[in-house]
Amino acid sequence: MNDRYSSAQILLHWLSALLVICTLSLPYAQDWLADWLGGTGGVFTLHKSLGLTILLVTSLRLLVRARHGAPQLLADDARWQRTAAKLAHAALYVLLLSMPLSGLLFGKRPLELFWLLTIDPLAVSDTTRALARQYHLTAKYLLFALILGHAGMALWHHYRLRDGVLRAMLPRRS
Questions:
Q1: HSE on the CB side for 138, CA within 13 Å?
Q2: Overall pTM surpassing 0.85 (yes/no)
Q3: How far apart (Å, rounded) are the C-alpha atoms in residues 110 and 52?
């Protein structure tokens, strides 16, 4: 039984974490970053570009996970914990895939992907745009809660249970 995630899984996990933190922070830091990024439009160009990068990285993560699986880190008598962890991870993956897609759906202007490539807005009804926008803004709070819970449980396993769950997702020390 493997007690660690693969190197690719670890890299993609921490890359995802960095991208999500940056993407979620950008709208809150727009006053500070607007001058540096050419105005508030530049802040949202970066926000949307990072969001699409999250979509790509999450898709890649799912492919790598399908190939490598996940280590069984919890004891057999902790079935409820395994179930809760699987549900929380599934919810995180759903949000990491659906939030960039909902962002694409409600955008009315062309998206400048990292100022290199223009993606035209999708042709959808105003009702669909409104629903996508509401989903995007509401899902943000669910994502905040899941991230806090995910990090909190990792720390609880590491410091309270000392069971190696967090170490399984940390790079190996040389």
A1: 6
A2: yes
A3: 14
Number of domain units in the chain: 1
The pLDDT tens digits for 53-75 are 999 999 999 999 999 988 877 66
The reply to whether 124 falls in a domain is yes
**Measured torsion, CA atoms of residues 100, 102, 105, 108, in degrees rounded to the nearest 10:** -80
Q: How far apart are CA 60 and CA 46, in angstroms?
A: 21
Residues forming beta bridges with residue 112, ordered by sequence position: 118
The token duo for 106 is 């409600």
Q: Contact 54/95 with Cβ under 8 angstroms? A: no
CATH number of the domain where residue 109 is located: 1.20.950.20
120 lies in a domain?
yes
- Summarised one tens digit per residue, pLDDT across range 106-143 is 989 999 999 999 999 999 999 999 999 999 999 999 99
